[in-house]
From TrEMBL:
InterPro entries on file: Ski3/TTC37, TPR-like_helical_dom_sf, TPR_rpt
Keywords (A to Z) from UniProt: Coiled coil, Repeat, TPR repeat
Coiled coil ranges: 3-39
Source taxon at top rank: Eukaryota
Transport is among the record's keywords: no
One GO BP: RNA catabolic process
Organism in which the protein naturally occurs: Ceuthmochares aereus
Stated name of the protein: TTC37 protein
TPR repeats: 40-73, 562-595, 596-629
Cellular component terms (Gene Ontology): Ski complex
Length: 690
């Protein structure tokens, strides 16, 4: 076949393809290849015809042969692109990306529009494959091409915005290079906006700042963006809110941070970050209750801020709300999510604070939970503070040997640490080794004199120490007073001061004040509440006693605060208000249904009210729970007497006399009176000689 015949055959193949006679086209191409096996156009036409005949493997082989022969010719590459685009096979995606890359190279110096079209297709393909870095880099090349062509600023702005959209919603897949491309896109989009300031520009700035806030290594860039937006939009609070949360999360509260909080509060008094910032300022200024209130309010509006939850827990610890602090730590850990870089430091701080709070709760279960929290702290074994907390947790669980082992290790390697000596003191105190405990607490105070707990435990050590200190509690008083001065929220120390003034000094008025203070600080301290009420009664101040009881019972949930219900019930019983007494004593029994004394008091209240049947049941219940309560047995007999059940009453009186011969009320005529009433009843019914 001559060259002329080859050209004629290729023309026939082209015409056949145009007429959709694809099999005819294949015949002409094969004839050409018999003469010229490396004919580029013949292989391209075979690829095209085979593709239309749905023979993708033959088409692919033909196009590949063509590109091997002429790698810089467009036709075969275009054919491959069309073939791969129609395929639904997953494995061709990578090949298609390579084809697009080659087409970009071939269109580079030629058809700019086709170059842009292929560029768009390649970006879309990379998106589908979640190759966001490659997509962004390709889009950036498109933008550079447009910049070289000096396109309108508005078109460039839209291109940068599209690049932002491409990357912004897929941050979970990004690496550092992709993040940088996203941030560069934001900066160019902000700089290329037509109208500044404008609503669109403002929203774009918000998106940029929100994006920056997700990247822990871009804090300087975040601060600059917030400050730049504030300069452009001075009445918009958003950048101040983000900047405030950034300062909170950074863990260091500078003058700049405090100024930011103040400025935000002035602009928007209801802003969550602003209220949180004010709460942290209160914490710094040792206004702990205000700090708790502000941080709680702020977190109701902005709850995904782990540092703010941590500061709330710290504030709650300062006022000894330990269970609340544990809950806040749990919220902080939940908000923290997966810890990275700064997040890991926060996680360690939160877990340590949680462990401290759990230890203060004091029971074995809480101590076990504290140990589990400490186990999650990175490099915990090398941190002496964490070791000291672990030692206290072991001690609370009753594992004295393990606590002692940690104590010895701390004293050996960290002899200048107050916590080392304090742990030793706690161990000695728990073992009633008061002289050794005194030495340890004095050593701890020497190294950290501002810790109220050390003074409190030294005071308790003196209280129980020896015969000499038992007679003279002056040393104990001195330490309790120091502890109270250092920590005015430490309710337990006011309880011990109340004990001193009541039992040693005999100053009931001052003792009552201390107990009342202790109870105000810790509403779960029933012993202090009861003592404050009892002393108020002794001092003739029933108004104060009732005020305390009313406050407790108003807040009490069903089945709680037994002591307050019981005390108020007894007060109503003494003052002739039996119906109120019944209601309160029933509430006390809901908290503790097995208290025989409470049942006995309820019986008295029913009796005073004239409810004899229920009074009888109450007295019988009291004697069932505690058979030694002779008074309840006697009162049951007395009620039966009133109800005319004389035989039952006589039997009960006789039982009392059998067990307690000298029981005066029963001997004093009740039994004889009962016999007399029984005889009178018989006469009235004509049962003579009964």
């Amino acid at each position: 076949m001559s060259n002329k015949e080859v050209k004629a055959a290729l023309k026939s193949a082209r015409d056949a393809i145009r007429n959709k006679e694809y099999k005819e086209a294949l015949k002409h191409c094969k004839a050409v290849l018999k003469q010229e096996k490396n004919n580029y156009n013949a292989w391209v036409f075979i690829g095209l015809a085979a593709a239309e005949l749905e023979q993708p493997d033959q088409a692919k082989g033909a196009y590949k042969k063509a590109v091997d022969l002429e790698p810089n010719q467009l036709l075969a590459w275009q054919g491959l692109a069309n073939l791969y685009e129609k395929s639904d096979q997953a494995d061709v995606k990578a090949d298609l990306a390579d084809v697009y890359q080659k087409l970009l190279e071939l269109y580079e110096s030629g058809d700019k529009q086709k170059w842009c079209d292929v560029c768009n297709k390649l970006v879309e393909l990379y998106q589908q494959e979640k190759k966001y870095l490659e997509a962004a880099e390709t889009w950036q090349k498109l933008i550079q091409k447009k910049q070289e062509d000096a396109v309108e600023k508005s078109e460039l702005h839209q291109l940068w915005k599209k690049m932002i959209k491409l990357l912004k919603d897929n941050t979970q897949y990004q690496d550092n290079k992709t993040e940088q491309l996203l941030l560069v896109a934001f900066e160019h989009a902000l700089g290329s906006a037509d109208t500044i300031p404008s609503e669109d520009h403002q929203n774009l700035y918000k998106d940029f700042i929100q994006c920056l806030s997700k990247f822990p290594y871009e804090m300087a860039r975040l601060e600059k963006a917030c400050n730049d937006m504030m300069a452009l939009y001075p009445t918009v609070s958003y950048p101040l809110e983000v900047l405030s949360l950034h300062f909170v999360q950074s863990g260091t509260l500078s003058e700049e941070a405090l100024h930011c909080f103040s400025r935000l509060s002035d602009m928007n008094a209801t802003s969550g970050p602003g209220i949180i910032g004010f709460g942290i300022k209160c914490l710094q200024e040792k206004k702990y209750k205000e700090a708790v209130n502000s941080l709680t309010e702020g977190l109701q509006k902005t709850d995904q801020c782990p540092a703010a939850w941590y500061y709330l827990a710290e504030s709650q610890m300062k006022i000894h709300k330990h269970r609340d602090a544990v809950q806040s730590c749990d919220q902080a850990l939940e908000a923290l999510g997966t810890p990275v870089s700064l997040g890991l430091q926060w996680k360690n701080r939160i877990l340590q604070l949680k462990a401290e709070a759990l230890i203060k709760i004091g029971d074995a279960d809480a101590a076990e939970e504290a140990i589990k929290a400490l186990e999650q702290i990175a490099d915990a074994s090398s941190d002496p503070m964490v070791l000291a907390i672990r030692g206290q947790a072991y001690l609370k669980k009753g594992l004295v040997d393990q606590a002692s082992e940690i104590s010895q290790e701390l004293l050996l390697h960290y002899p200048d640490l107050a916590e080392s000596h304090a742990l030793e003191g706690f161990i000695h105190y728990s073992q009633k080794n008061y002289e050794q405990a005194e030495r340890s607490f004095l050593n701890a105070i020497e190294r950290k004199a501002e810790t109220a707990e050390y003074h409190q435990y030294l005071g308790l050590t003196y209280w129980f120490m020896s015969d000499e200190t038992k007679k003279d509690k002056g040393k104990a008083l001195s330490q309790f007073l120091k502890a109270a001065k250092l920590d005015s929220y430490l309710g337990s120390v006011f309880h011990y001061l109340g004990n001193y003034y009541r039992d040693i000094a005999g100053d009931k008025s001052r003792a009552r004040g201390c107990y009342k203070k202790a109870f105000e600080l810790d509403e779960t301290d029933e012993e202090s509440g009861t003592a404050a009420v009892d002393l108020s009664v002794e001092l003739g101040d029933m108004d104060s006693a009732l005020s305390i009881l009313n406050e407790v019972t108003e807040k009490a949930r069903m089945g709680t605060a037994k002591w307050a219900w019981l005390q108020r019930g007894l007060y109503y019983l003494r003052t002739g208000q039996p119906s109120k007494a019944v209601a309160d004593l029933q509430a006390a029994l809901r908290a503790d249904p097995k208290d025989p004394n409470c049942w006995e008091s309820l019986g008295e209240a029913y009796l005073s009210r004239g409810s004899y049947a229920t009074a009888l049941k109450s007295f019988r219940k009291a004697s069932e729970l505690n058979p030694a309560l002779v008074y309840s047995v006697y009162k049951a007999a007395a009620v039966e007497h009133i109800l005319g059940k004389y035989k039952n009453a006589i039997t009960t009186y006789q039982q009392i006399l059998e067990t307690t011969e000298e029981y005066v009320p029963a001997l004093k005529g009740r039994l004889g009176e009962c016999y007399l009433m029984l005889a009178r009843s018989a006469l009235e019914n004509y049962f003579d000689r009964k």
